[in-house]
Each structure stands twice: as C-alpha cells, then as structure tokens.
Write the structure tokens for this entry.
Amino acid sequence: MTSVLYSAEEIHSVGTINNVETSYFTQLKICHLLPNDNVSMSVGHLDHILIVYSSMEHVTWTTTYFSFRGIIYQQMFGAAMGSPVSPLLANLFMEWLEKQAVATAPVECKPKFWNQYVDDVLELIKKGQVRNLTDHINTIDPTGNIKFTYKEEEDKQITFLDTLLVRREDGSVKLLVYRKKSHTDQYLNFGSHHPLNHKLAVIRTLLEKYYSIVMEEDDRKKEEEHIAEALSKCGYPPWTTDRVKQDIVEKSLKDEGMV
C-alpha cells in the first residue's frame, strides 16, 4: 500500500520499513517549482478547501505586476518569486499533482512509499521502474512545465533533506544526520555579542535534530561527539550543552505531564 505523506517529520517513519531489498529509494527533484506553478489550478484547488474567499484575494493570487526600466509588465504564468503567497499556491498545486501521480501510476511502478516536502520527494519503488514512474509523473501537469528529475541511491545510501538513509544488510533502513561535503560546522560564535538565548538555540537545534533522526545508540554517540567538537571550535563551554540538555529533558517531562 502506498503512503502519501506531507509532513517533513514523517520522513522518520521510513526507519520502520523492512525488507526493501527488491526496491530502490530514489529522490525526485522538481525543476523550478515557483516559476512553473500552475496558479490557476492552485486557486481552483483552494476552492475545495475554503468555502468563501474574496474577489480581492483572487486578484492577488492570479495577477502579478512588476516594473522594469520604467515599463510595467504582467507575469503571465507561474508564481512570483518572493511573494508570501507563492509557497501556499505551490504547495496546493503539488498536493493535487502528487495525489494524481500516485493514484494513476501503473501498478508495476506504483511507489511503496512517498514523502514530499516542497520540491523534494523521497520514494520507495520497485527496482527497474524509476524511469517509468518519473516519465509518468512528468505527464501529470497539463501545462507540461513541471518536470521531475531523479537520483537513485548509491552504495545503499540516499539523502533527503537533512537525513541520510542507509540500507542495512537485512534490507531495513537506519537514519543519520546528513551534512554536505562543503559543510564547515561554523555556527554562531560564543564570543559574539549576541544574546545568550540565541547561542543556546544553536545547541538546541543541533541536539533536537539528531534526537529526532538518529535511531541507534552507537550512531547517537558519534553524532553527539561531532556536535561537541564543532561547538568547542566555536567557543562554546561545556556548561552550555549541559544546560540545553537539561532544558530539553524538562520540556519533554512537562509535555508528558510528568512534572
């Protein structure tokens, strides 16, 4: 059965998938989502969600004007880059497109798992069917402007957002924190003239990320050592990490109603 997921956090459920040795993880990428978004279709999809919206809102969503060298132009297609409305319209269009794509996919290439976040998609599909599914998805947009490219897992690994999926020998999957090769571990320096809560927020972000992603104890230990070394290079004393850890524990206990 295919799972169509919309929340970035739900990527972690992939860690419960077993026996995927006959399938590949692939990453789909949408080329230039906002400039190619079908705004009219997005607004039409919105009709089914909102009972009433004003004509002024409709004008705002479907017309975009800009000035260049004294001449006023109208953008005829796509969502305007930088507009606060554009991500909403793009998400609405992608919600429609992915439901159509998965529902109408041929049985032999229907994905077993599907997780979309903005213009990135992670899917689990039968080996040898990646090209067929991608070609199928690229026929869904009636304008022909939305196109997907794909990347297959290599050496039993594939990335999605800030997560690295690693396939074990038994076909199950474990998750690690992903960092690009160009990542420098440069964070807000502790000696900078920023409020302390900003600096503690850096630590909290790093800790909560790996708490929610990394599943195995050995991997958690390695990740914590990596974070400690990176923070030390940025001037963070050990007490800052201890304080944030305590705050996270207290918040967790409070959320569970234990304090």
